[in-house]
């Protein structure tokens, strides 16, 4: 994606000169750019790297919230420092940030490499993503934190709007049932999120280990479970030719690795009630994102029923609870 900020190389050089004591050996524009930012990779003589991001003045990064995320996830969240402003009077004015450069590449690019093998790599990736999402749990329930979840309120509004559309005629009864279970989400711990967990924001090192999550511009607190729908992007894929969701041959292994990692890192006791509440949270999110304009490629309507029917596989984790509970 190309940035709408234009060429800011000279501004980047000026920020680097005043920010870093040691002059870099290279300043290279990153291959992926956001709509409201321009990103550069800064390399120093000792081989260390930093990320420099120039952003529109109205696209600031909430550094205190990022530090809160780092408190939970450690090095999986890049450290961010404010580097002041850039631009002259009468020209573009913005804000600059330096960030730690996480090792590896984004997961989307990693999965396109010739050496990538989904059969062997996806279980490792699933365990890494599951551990990261589990660590996002604060361990504190919203009713005890006195918190209101803006993201959840937006999802509820989206569901109510969707229920009025013809695409959701066959889902209205299920959606009404989900809206009737909203109070159960208060029993789940809050989780911190960047609101955008996807392949382009997950970083992975050369060994196939998840090295972090980037793009923390919109930090939110949501009920634990809100981002766990990512399991559906790992255990299978949407086949555009057959118009159906295809489970991978090692789907069970991927699920076991993902959920095992989530629950071993969640900072919250897990029982059958918690599992059911997590499933409710995942289904509420599904009903809010399917049917969104411009998202048909990522969330084709034909996948909604699959997500509504999905149950966390108790037996794969060795629990003495059947999947039919």
TrEMBL record:
What InterPro entries does the record tag this protein with? Aminoglycoside_PTrfase, Kinase-like_dom_sf
Q: Where does this protein come from, organism-wise?
A: Calocera viscosa (strain TUFC12733)
Q: What is the lineage of its organism?
A: Eukaryota, Fungi, Dikarya, Basidiomycota, Agaricomycotina
Q: What is this protein called?
A: Aminoglycoside phosphotransferase domain-containing protein
Q: Which domain of life is it from?
A: Eukaryota
Q: Where are the bilayer-spanning segments?
A: none
- Residue span, Aminoglycoside phosphotransferase domain: 39-228
**Listed SUPFAM superfamilies:** Protein kinase-like (PK-like)
């Amino acid at each position: 994606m190309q940035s709408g900020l234009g060429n800011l190389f000279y501004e980047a050089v000026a920020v680097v000169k005043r920010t870093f004591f040691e002059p870099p050996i290279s300043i290279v524009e990153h291959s992926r750019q956001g709509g409201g930012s321009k990103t550069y990779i800064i390399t120093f003589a000792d081989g260390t790297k930093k990320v420099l991001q120039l952003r529109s003045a109205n696209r600031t990064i909430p550094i205190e919230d990022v530090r809160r995320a780092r408190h939970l996830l450690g090095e999986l969240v890049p450290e961010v420092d404010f580097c002041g402003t850039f631009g002259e009077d009468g020209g573009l004015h913005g804000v600059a940030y330096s960030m730690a450069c996480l090792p590896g590449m984004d997961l989307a690019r990693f999965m396109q490499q010739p050496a990538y093998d989904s059969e062997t790599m996806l279980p490792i990736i699933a365990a890494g993503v599951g551990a990261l999402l589990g660590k996002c749990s604060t361990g504190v329930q919203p009713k005890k934190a006195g918190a209101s979840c803006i993201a959840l309120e937006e999802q509820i509004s989206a569901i109510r709007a969707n229920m009025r559309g013809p695409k959701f005629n066959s889902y209205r009864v299920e959606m009404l049932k989900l809206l009737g279970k909203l109070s159960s989400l208060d029993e789940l711990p809050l989780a911190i999120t960047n609101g955008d967990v996807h392949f382009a924001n997950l970083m992975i090192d050369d060994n196939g280990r998840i090295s972090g999550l980037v793009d923390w511009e919109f930090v939110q607190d949501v009920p634990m479970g809100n981002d766990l729908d990512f399991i559906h992007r790992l255990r299978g894929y949407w086949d555009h030719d057959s118009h159906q969701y295809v489970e991978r041959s090692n789907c069970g292994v991927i699920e076991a690795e993902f959920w095992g990692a989530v629950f071993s890192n969640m900072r919250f006791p897990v029982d059958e009630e918690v599992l059911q509440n997590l499933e409710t949270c995942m289904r509420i999110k599904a009903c809010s994102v399917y049917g969104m304009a411009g998202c048909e490629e990522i969330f084709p309507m034909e996948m909604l029923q699959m997500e509504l029917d999905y149950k966390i596989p108790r037996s794969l984790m060795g629990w003495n609870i059947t999947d039919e509970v």
